[in-house]
Amino acid sequence: MTFCAAFAFMECEKTENYTWVLEKLKGMMDPNALPSVIVIDRELALMNAITNVFPHATNLLCRWHIGKNVLAKCRKMFDDKMWEEFICSWGLVVLSASVAQYEERLCVLKRNFEMVPAALEYVEKNWLVPYKERAESSHSKLKNHLENSQCNFDTIWEKIHRLMLLQVTEVKASFEKSLNYVQHDFRTTLFDRLRGAVSSNAMTLVLATSHQVKWFVESKHVANIPLPIELIHDHWKRLSLLAPQNEGSMEETLLAHFDCFYNKFLNEDQYDVKVNYVKKMQELAHPKSSTLLEPKVNAQPRGRKSTKEKNAAKEQNSTRRDPSEFEHVLASLQTPKLVKEKPRRNLKGKAKVPAQLLICPFINQFLEAIRPYIESVKDVEDDGN
């Protein structure tokens, strides 16, 4: 399942900012459980930061972002019909399941669209040469919890905290499902050693490739033998939120970090730097001693806001992101629709229904002398007499 591990506020999207965030995230993680695969959207600054902080992790690119970048850069090079053919052929290249299939589909792409060398050069230079991996895109639920982009830090922290608690509950529920619930498809001999020991999602993936497993079993003459648990990656064996490292070793690690800080404080020659260290420690130990205050908000603004100001405030508070480059490209290619004006009806000569007739539909059936004294008329159904 997909869940959020951490959130960060950054001043700008530069390599040093991303490096700081990733180092803080790495410091909270178990050294023996660092990520081996990281999926991003080809943000160059983020890619450089990942290389510095997680040098052993495989850096993959989100397939959805690849498609949108190709759309933004290459859409204007084709007409509508040729673009559909190009994007379909490109999609087949991205979805290649093997190296041989990738090479074959790439040759077809180059042969069919050799008349547009700029597009081929872009996709090959920016996407195909450096990256041949496949990855799925992910989605975040944070916007649904924030509801507003103009929140103070306390409000945002509280909403993020609720989101994290909700996700912890969902993760625990998925663990309980893997430990206690067994699907009918997993009751075969093949899953005897996996049931209750690995995630149900992992067994679903094994089941999806059961035809390959069946071929392997039949070719090796090892039918009705359970699948060894050693073939499953350790990632799928984690069915608890408890840290795999014992508390004693964690305590020693924390003390070692504190000793490094203490030694740096003792060896510092400048008095001002030492004072700054003490202030930082005091703010951590006693947050109320901090001199930082939130800006005051005018709770009683004078005058009523105009419609323009209300719309501007609504747009400012929106959590909707700014349009991406591919969205600007699509907007420029769309033909504006002509709005047909509705013909105005000529009301001249149309009889106006009297108000009294609308209130009393049968008023004309009574004598004119008594009409002013009639307040309502009701037409009852006949009873057969």
UniProtKB/TrEMBL annotation:
Q: What is this protein called?
A: MULE transposase domain-containing protein
- In this chain the MULE transposase domain maps to 2-69
Mind telling me which InterPro entries this protein's record contains?
A: MULE_transposase_dom, Zinc_finger_SWIM
UniProt xrefs under Pfam families = MULE (PF10551)
- Which residue ranges are recorded for the region named Disordered? 289-326
Q: Where is the composition biased (Basic and acidic residues)?
A: 306-326
* Organism annotation: Rhododendron griersonianum
